[in-house]
Specification:
This is Oxidoreductase. InterPro entries: NAD(P)-bd_dom_sf (IPR036291), SDR_fam (IPR002347). The chain is α/β, with parallel strands linked by helices and about 325 residues long. It is built from nine helices and eight strands. About 35% of the residues lie in helices and about 15% in strands. The protein starts with about 20 loop residues before the first strand and ends in a 20-residue tail after the last helix.
Length: about 325
């Protein structure tokens, strides 16, 4: 996307009026999540903070003062598929925008309540199930937050024979796999939406290097120290880090688009369309991952997307 000196850099003030629109943001009680909530609410949206700890969610919602939109806090634990199903089954009415933002990064080896490796289970499988269960309600867009870490050479593929990385767990390898899965999920979701004649779009975004509390949970002391230094010297703040997500949520983008910062190494800057790795662009791997994810979660692409979502075959998304 070209820029000239006369073209203002995209920021949250350019979000259109979202009055009457409803959004769900997962992991919304801190960092990129609450920055995303704040911007959407200031544009007039009704925003649901889907959070594991509702007390922290309410405290976060209280920081969004003076916004014309409205806020609501609901419990959601992406590391517990029963919690995901409760959240989805309680939903009524339309949902314009689902933002799959929540995530864990580089944590010590751990498992979800359903026995999956925590990073893959939370970052990918939890959002996979949530999205499919909510799709009959979604009217506009699914935005899934990935990461430049999907390109890490040591884990540039999905470990289909050992998704939990049992006996070969490394925090960064597990994180990279989960972020690659986010992009493959977006690719296959868009293919299925298009085949079903839906006008809903699936897109992805990454924040670059944003200073949040996510890095503080790193399993490595040395990486934590490096991240703390980087947060002070190199990183964008959470509001700037949320801009690619917001851009993906409201701009007229093609399905399966990927948005990130436009600066050096995509670490910081204004949001723009960016590329992804060859592994993240493989439709066969995306389909295989989808099939495996359905088997693991029991969540499948819905047969009914809603009569109001149908569009003529061959029309633009």
């Amino acid at each position: 996307m070209s820029k000239t000196m006369n073209t203002p850099r995209w920021n949250a003030t350019r979000i259109p009026d979202l009055t009457g629109r409803t959004a769900v943001v997962t992991g919304a009680n801190s960092g990129l999540g609450i920055a995303t909530v704040d911007a959407l609410a200031r544009a007039g949206a009704h925003v649901v903070l889907a959070v594991r700890d509702t007390a922290r969610g309410e405290a976060a919602a209280a920081t969004v003062a003076g916004a014309p939109g409205t806020l609501e806090v609901r419990p959601l634990d992406l590391a517990d598929l029963a919690s995901v199903r409760r959240f989805a089954s309680s939903w009524q009415g339309d949902l314009d925008l689902l933002i799959n933002n929540a995530g864990v990064m580089n944590i010590p080896e751990a498992g979800t309540k359903d026995g999956f490796e925590m990073q893959f289970g939370t970052n990918h499988l939890g959002h996979f199930a949530l999205t499919n269960l909510l799709l009959p309600h979604i009217t506009d867009r699914v935005v899934t937050v990935s990461s430049g870490a999907h390109r890490i050479p040591s884990s540039n593929h999905i470990h289909f024979e050992n998704l939990n990385l049992t006996g070969e767990y490394a925090p960064m390898r597990a994180y990279s796999q989960s972020k690659l899965a986010n992009l493959l999920f977006t690719l296959e979701l868009q293919r299925r939406l298009t085949a079903a004649g839906s006008r809903v779009r699936a897109v992805a975004a990454h924040p670059g290097w944003a200073a949040t509390n996510l890095q503080g949970n790193d399993a490595s002391f040395l990486r934590r120290a490096f991240m703390r230094m980087g947060n002070r010297v190199f990183a964008q703040d959470s509001k700037a880090g949320a801009l690619p997500t917001l851009y993906a949520a409201v701009q007229d983008l093609p399905g399966a688009a990927y948005v990130g910062p436009d600066g050096l190494g995509e670490m910081r800057g204004a949001p723009t369309l960016v590329g992804r790795s060859v592994a993240a662009s493989d439709p066969e791997t995306a389909r295989r991952l989808w099939t495996v994810s359905e088997e693991l979660t029991g969540a499948t692409f819905p047969q009914r997307l809603g009569a109001d979502l149908a569009r003529p075959a061959g029309s633009a998304i």
